[in-house]
């Protein structure tokens, strides 16, 4: 089995977010996909199979399968555009979150995702205790979104991973207004056996609706302030979020399984 390792939301290796991509002719057993994912130990490993004019795409973390992942979708699109669909301008993926479309646009790969419907929730002492700083606001959808007053607070967080498991949401995203970008954020996912997701695409389906409303604009540049770092070029159109970025190939591997 061939596997591609791609750094997404960056134009240089060792930055952005790593994803492994396996392009298959048929689906292997789920146990095998989980074992490959755990062996890689990236935040995501993607598996895709062509089905007619579309590609069926599934995403796995070391903690299990998830319903949406932006950076692994970007990585998969990069692989397909460069090695399997060289003449294509658009790819359609069948996923647990419905059909997702990725388009080549102005030197970037742009993904269309559903926006999450954020509901405000009370800021609690448990949130402050887990994060090490008290959010100014908090919202819940699939994930918990915590808004901080200052960018430096987001950049300097050292949350307690065990305590994060006790607060709401599948993932926890922390965000603030940015100095060089419209917003900065970090994403933590101990419930999925991920300490920190370096650049989280699905997280920005929570983050961008918040900032688009607050800033009164639908086109934003977002920076994920993890150690690896990554930039997302985002726009909102109704209940859809468009995330664009670059990607770079790190390796092509042969799996002996």
Please, how many helices? 6
Spatial gap, N to C terminus: 7 Å
Number of domains: 2
CATH superfamily of the largest domain: Diaminopimelate Epimerase, Chain A, domain 1
* General shape: globular
CATH-assigned fold name of the largest domain: Diaminopimelate Epimerase, Chain A, domain 1
- CATH top level of the largest domain is Alpha Beta
CATH architecture of the largest domain: Roll
Query: What is the gyration radius calculated from CA atoms?
Result: 17 Å
- Structural class by helix and strand composition: alpha+beta
Give the strand tally: 18
Can you summarize the main beta sheet? 18 strands, mixed
Which stretches of 5+ consecutive residues score pLDDT under 50? none
| Helix content estimate | 10-25%
Q: Estimate the mean pLDDT confidence.
A: 95
Strand content: 35-45%
Element-level helix/strand string:
EEHEEEHEEEEHEEHHEEEHEEEE
Could you characterize what this model shows?
The chain is α+β, with helices and mostly antiparallel strands and 257 residues long. The protein folds into two domains: 2-114 and 243-254, Roll (Diaminopimelate Epimerase, Chain A, domain 1); 119-241, Diaminopimelate Epimerase, Chain A, domain 1 (Roll). The protein contains six helices and 18 strands. The N and C termini lie close together (7 Å).
């Amino acid at each position: 089995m061939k596997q591609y390792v791609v750094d997404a939301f960056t134009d240089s290796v060792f930055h952005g977010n790593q994803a492994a991509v396996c392009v298959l002719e048929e689906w292997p057993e789920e146990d095998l996909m989980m074992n490959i994912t755990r062996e890689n130990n990236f935040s995501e490993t993607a598996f895709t199979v062509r089905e007619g004019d579309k590609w069926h795409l599934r995403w796995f973390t070391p903690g299990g399968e998830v319903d949406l992942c932006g950076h692994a979708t970007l990585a998969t699109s990069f692989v397909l555009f460069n090695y399997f669909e060289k003449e294509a301008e658009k790819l359609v993926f069948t996923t647990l979150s419905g059909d997702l479309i990725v388009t080549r646009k102005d030197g970037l790969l742009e993904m269309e995702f559903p926006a999450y419907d954020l509901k405000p929730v009370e800021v609690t002492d448990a949130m402050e205790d887990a994060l090490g700083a008290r959010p100014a606001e908090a919202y819940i959808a699939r994930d918990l979104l915590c808004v901080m007053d200052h960018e430096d607070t987001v950049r300097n967080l050292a949350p307690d991973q065990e305590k994060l498991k006790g607060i709401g949401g599948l993932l926890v995203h922390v965000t603030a207004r940015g100095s060089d970008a419209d917003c900065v954020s970090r994403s933590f996912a101990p419930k999925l056996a991920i300490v920190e997701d370096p650049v989280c695409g699905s997280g920005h389906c929570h983050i961008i609706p918040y900032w688009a409303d607050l800033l009164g604009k639908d086109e934003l540049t977002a920076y994920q302030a993890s150690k690896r770092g990554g930039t997302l070029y985002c726009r909102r159109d109704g209940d859809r979020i468009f995330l664009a970025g670059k990607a770079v190939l790190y390796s092509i591997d042969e799996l002996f399984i």
